Amino acid sequence: MKKSIIFIALFYCSLVFAFAQEDPYLTMMQQSIAQLDKNASVADFQVSANQFERAATVKTEEWLPNYWAAYCYAMMSYMAENIDTKDQYADQAEKFFKKIEASQQENDEVWVMKAYIAQAKLAADPMSRWQSQGGIFQSALEKAKKLNTQNPRIYLLRGQNLLNTPESFGGGKASACPLFLQADEKFSNFKPVSSIHPDWGRGYMEDILKECK
Amino acid sequence: MKNIYSLILICCLAHTGLAQSIIQGKVLDKKGNPLVGANVFLKNTFWGTSTDTSGVFKFEIMDWAQDTLVVGLLGYEGIEQKIQSTETSDFVFKLREEANELNTVVITAGTFEASDEKKMVMLKPLDIVRTASSNGDLFGALQTLPGAQRVGEQEGLFVRGGSANESKTLIDGMMVQNPFFSSLPDISTRSRFSPFLFKGTAFSTGGYSAQYGQALSSVLNLQSQDLPDKSNLNLFLSPITGGITGTKRWENTSLALSGTYTNVAFTNWLIPQNIDWIRPFSGWGTSAIFRHKFKGNDLLKSFTNYGYSDGGFYFRDFGTNRNAFELSNNNIFQQFHYEKFFEKWTLEAGLSYSYNVDLIGLNEDKVRRLDDRIQARLVAKKDIFKNSSILLGAEWHQYQFENSFNAFSNQLSETYTAFFAETEIYLTRKIAGRVGARAEHSAILNRFNLASRFSFAYKTGKHSQVSLAFGEFYQNPETRYLYQNTQLKFEKSLHYILNYQWMKEGYTFRIEAFSKDYQDLVRELDNQTFNPDPNRRISANLDNSGSGFARGIDLFWRDNNKCFKNIDYWISYSFIDTERLYQNFPRQASPVFASQHNLNVVYKHFIAKWSLDFNLTYSYASGRPYYNPNAEVFMRDLTPDFHNVSLGFNYLTTFLKAQTILIFSINNVLNREHVFGYRYSEDGGERVAVNPTVFRSFFVGISMTIE
Question: What are phi and psi of B494, to 5 degrees?
Answer without folding.
Answer: -125, 130
